[in-house]
Each structure stands twice: as C-alpha cells, then as structure tokens.
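Below is one record:
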Amino acid sequence: MIAAEEIIVNNNVLITKGTRLTESIIKKLKNVYLENDLQVYERDPEQENILKEGKKELEQAQITVKKLCNHLENIFFKIKLEGKTDMNEVRNFSKKVMEELISPRTMIKNIVIEGNGQDSIYKHSVNVIVLSSLLGKWLGFAEDRLNLLAYSAILHDFGKTKIDKKIISKSSRLTTEEREELRKHPVIAYNLIKDISYLSNSVKYGVLMHHERIDGSGYPLGLKDNKIHEFAKIIAIADTFDYINSNKNSDDPFKALEYIRKDCLGKLDYNYSKLFVEHVANYFFGENVLLNNGKVGKIVHIDINNLSRPLILCDENFIDLKKENELKIEGFLAD
C-alpha cells in the first residue's frame, strides 16, 4: 500500500505522500508514534514513477538555474559595457526568480545537492538570490519589500566581475594582497548604484554591507549589529550558506546548516539565522540519503540541535543516527 497523504507528528513529517507502506513500517509507526488510523490506498502503477518524476523535477530545476545564470551573466556584461545599471532588467530578472519560488522544494534541493559548482559569481549569485528571497518570505516581508531585497541580492556580487579572474577562481589560499583586492567587490557594486536617485537606499545598503558581521569583524566598514541593514544581514546568511555548502572538501550535507546554527553565533543575525535553519531543515524531511554503509534511507525526523544525526527509515527499520555513531549520511540522492 501507499501513503495517501503525509504523516505528520509534532510538526515533523514522518512519512511523505507516496511512500510504500509495509506491515513492518505500519507496525512501528503505530507502536511508536500514532494513535489514529493511517490513510492508505492500493498501489497505483503511476506511483512507481514517483522517484522518476522527482528526478525529472530536479533536472528541470538544473535547467532553470542554468538559464537564470546565463541571464544574470548577460545583465552583468551589459552593466560592465555601459557603466550603468538597467533596473528594468533587474526587475524582470527578479520576477523570473520569484516565479520559481512558488513551490521552492526542488530549488532548495538543487542548491543543496549541486551547490554553486565553483561558479562563485553567477550560479552563486542565483543561489543567494533564491535563498535571500525565501528568507524574506519566511520573515513575512510584503511584496514591495521582498522585491527590493531581491534587487539587492541580484547586484550584491557584481563587483566580483571587476576583480582579477585569477583571484576569483583561485582554489588555494589567497595572499593578503589578493584577499584585500577581493574585499573591494561590495564597494565596487555600491559605487555603481549609489547615485541612482530613484533606487531605494535599502538596495544600496544590502549590496554594500553584505559582508559586515554583527561583531564588527566584517568589511568594508567594520559595522556592528544594528548599524548593519537588514537586507545585508539576510544576504549574508544566504551567501555564507552557499559558500559552505559548495565546499566539496566536506562530505557532510548538513555542514552548511550546522555552520549557520553554531559557528556563526555572534557574526550573523541570530533570529534570522534560526529561522533560516529551521525552514531549510524542513525541506530535508522525506529526502532520500546515502549512508556510509552503502544503504539508502529516508529522513523522517530532524533534531534541530543535532542536524546531521536525523532519524532515518531504512529497509523498513528506523535508524536513529544519534545512537548509531558508526553510521553517517554521505549525501542526498537526486532521485
């Protein structure tokens, strides 16, 4: 039989719609979690295609992101060529991104699995635009405010196009001189838009301040806490998440969320970070993961205080990774 709807207990999705229910799974669910009957329906041949459809959706998301990257690259090229920003193009690009966020699960999954592919300008920027806009939505921003946030996220890394490509693409540690050169990119982008009289200052400040940190350790101004604009605080979280998530030296798919939750205390806005982690983690429920023993499982519960050790449904058994120290998740599966 197949679950006819999500099984949710205490706001956690234990079983996603379409999951095959064996007698063993039903028994464990009823004994451990449930008091009510389960809603099920008999196997439909179409259900056999659920994973294939999920894979197709992810492939479509990859195509969409590639198109957005190409569009953004064209916008940046035109800015460099003309020395000014066409805000109509920025607005139109923002609308395209917003259209993809009506059902954001696949876009988030694509970001988590694919990262930025070492494209630290265009794909990275698209990921940051998506994540910043989603965080703005989760914060309850009105449409006009959300649009301004998106404009700021779109332009936040334009300055990198003016930096030596050897520095941008360098995989080894930057020298002091190279690091100082790279740190100029927020100011470069800000100088491009600062004199656009009709453009909200919130957009300009988001661009200028997205590398500032709550404790004053950021750049270019070394601002602290409430001196940093809210757009910059939001973009900083999205920017940091994509940077850490795209670091292929890590085999822990939860590392970026853990980094936002723990390692950035005192650097990134606490309330914004907490909301971001909670919402992104919600999209991990029901996802298939590969364990280091070669088996595939499904995430059915996540402890927000121990993100990388969730409860896994594997071979009709529940595995609590908090109690299985030798097991760990190696990565999310695309299908």
The mean pLDDT is 88. The longest strand covers residues 296-301.
